[in-house]
Amino acid sequence: MGKQKIDIPKMLSDLKADDSSGADQLVRKALEIIKTQLELVKNPNDNIKDKILLLAKNIINSRPSMAPLINSMGYIIQNLEKITVKTIQQRLVEFEKDRIIRKKALNTYFNEFLRKFKKSHLKIMLISYSSTIINSLLGNTKYNLEIYILESRPLFEGRKTAEILSQYYKTHLIIDAAMGKYINQIDVVLIGVDSILKDGSVINKIGTLPLAILAKTNDVKVYAIADSYKYNLKSHYGYPILIEEKPIEEIYDKSLVTDFLQIHNYYFDITQPHYISGIISNIGVLSIQDFLEKVYQDLPIEWFKYFIINKKI
User: Fold this and answer.
1) Which residues pair with 127 in a beta bridge?
2) Which of 133, 152, 228, 230 is the right S-S partner for 158, CB 3.0 to 4.6 Å?
């Protein structure tokens, strides 16, 4: 068999179409695209700045609501006057080390969060699939937890979460509309994060907003769990964040019989900060405001100005 053809446009298309992977997996796919581009460079000493910046733009725009892609690109190319294969390879190594440090810190703070609960048996409600939440829970199996998981339509990512966590905890898989039936049994709601916006709002799987509203009206605290790289730099600099509509066939597969029937399918919604009690992240267990103040010290905030000044986004 001949050598497989390298197809970066196909890799970008796959990244855009991937609706089942979590942010961590998508970042890994983005890094593979960068590595593939480096393999195509004939002279490793050539300045490939324009090529890498264009690729970073395409990666960011493939998933506009996915903040970690923005910040990952920022880490890799920030403050580089000249970009060569060697400089990017060095950044990729540094980035992997930094990711490990952030994951360990988040797990430490999540453990600290769990220790604050005095109850010996803690009931937690989740929605959809979050690798960050799953990894945090699997790193703390010594606690007696009972998990209630919303199945999360239209793609039912909650089923995958239930299959994983039920190997370690007593787990209940419930339909989204049943959240109200169980909320009074719940001690705390944990939500994943796709992006944290400049005002502290959280973009996450559709259904997060009504879950947060329901929890607040029933005096159940809601905590987001997120790496600090979930802070969205496009929002930081005033760019609107588009919540895309997805294929209607996923929720209605019949032929339309009337022009008056419109089908809407969204994967994400936006939850305002006053519904969220705090954020558990690699920089601490913090209020929304404290997280926003601290995250500026943790991210390559300034690098994104390049895209604004040069109209790259």
Assistant:
1) 150
2) 152
Could you please state the CATH topology (level 3) that the domain comprising 119-295 is classified under: Rossmann fold (3.40.50)
Which distant-in-sequence residues (6+ apart) come within 8 Å of 87 by Cβ? 80
E strand segments, 137-178: 145-150, 170-174
- Helices vs strands, H then E, count in the chain: 12, 10
Of 214, 223, 204, 81, which Cα lies nearest the Cα of 152? 204
Question: Is-contact 253 245, C-beta < 8 A?
Answer: no
The yes/no answer on whether domain 8-103+300-309 falls in CATH 3.30.470.20 is no
Q: Using DSSP, state whether 128 is helix, strand or coil.
A: coil
User: pLDDT tens across 7-47, in order?
Assistant: 899 999 999 888 777 788 889 999 999 999 999 999 988 99
Separation of alpha carbons 60 and 72, rounded Å: 10
Beta bridge partners of 188: 124, 221
Query: Global pTM?
Result: 0.89
* Residues 6 or more apart whose Cβ sits within 8 Å of residue 182: 125, 148, 172, 174
Q: Could you read off the pLDDT of 201-232 as tens digits, one per residue?
A: 999 999 999 999 999 999 999 999 999 999 99
Asked if pLDDT for residue 1 goes beyond 50, the answer is no
User: Are 8-103+300-309 and 119-295 in the same CATH fold?
Assistant: no
* For residue 3, pLDDT beyond 70: no
